[in-house]
């Protein structure tokens, strides 16, 4: 990807995340994002359809990069989950904004898509399943992982990310092997 494109997308992603932490996703407009990022409206729409698309695409790119740096393609099937749980523990305020009790359904669904796409990219190297079974497996794992991420970011009783990962392995690991 061209350096200028990457820079613009990073500015827009950063602006969205900052605004989410300040006022919540539902109260953010595309105008708020482009004002914060200092880019033009046409530039925004050259890259993304709407703020939901910005969230899913940019967060998925970020998550894939983080997982790729931390997990070799030949790593264990659920290794990306370990990375995701640690990212959530390192940035609980962001993940609470994505998955907290006041998060709108569209945001929770976008987060699930982001997690599913990241898991899917890794699991294609590990699972030899028909397409429909593969999709069901990824959906099951992604929704379960969202629950664990929420427990890791719980402000009252956070679950340590390594404990959450061990729970995921004990629940889903046998089915994957």
From TrEMBL:
Coiled coil: none annotated. GO terms for molecular function: DNA binding. SUPFAM superfamilies: Homeodomain-like. Residues 29-48 bind DNA. The keyword Nucleus does not apply. InterPro entries: Homeodomain-like_sf, HTH-type_Tx_Regulator, HTH_TetR. It holds the Pfam family TetR_N. Keywords: DNA-binding. Signal peptide: none annotated. Residues 6-66 form the HTH tetR-type domain. The keyword Cell wall biogenesis/degradation does not apply. This is HTH tetR-type domain-containing protein. The lineage of its organism: Bacteria, Bacillati, Actinomycetota, Actinomycetes, Mycobacteriales.
């Amino acid at each position: 990807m061209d350096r200028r494109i990457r820079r613009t997308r990073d500015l827009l992603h950063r602006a969205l995340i900052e605004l989410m932490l300040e006022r919540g996703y539902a109260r953010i407009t595309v105008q708020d994002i482009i004002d914060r990022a200092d880019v033009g409206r046409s530039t925004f729409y050259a890259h993304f359809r709407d703020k939901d698309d910005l969230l899913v695409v940019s967060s998925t790119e970020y998550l894939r990069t983080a997982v790729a740096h931390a997990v070799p393609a030949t790593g264990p099937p659920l290794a990306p989950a370990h990375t995701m749980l640690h990212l959530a523990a390192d940035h609980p305020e962001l993940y609470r904004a994505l998955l907290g009790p006041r998060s709108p359904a569209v945001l929770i669904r976008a987060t699930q898509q982001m997690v599913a796409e990241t898991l899917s990219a890794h699991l294609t190297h590990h699972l030899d399943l028909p397409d429909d079974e593969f999709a069901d497996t990824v959906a099951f794992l992604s929704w379960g992982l969202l629950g664990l991420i929420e427990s890791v970011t719980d402000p009252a009783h956070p679950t340590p990310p390594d404990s959450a990962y061990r729970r995921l392995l004990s629940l889903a690991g046998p089915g994957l092997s």
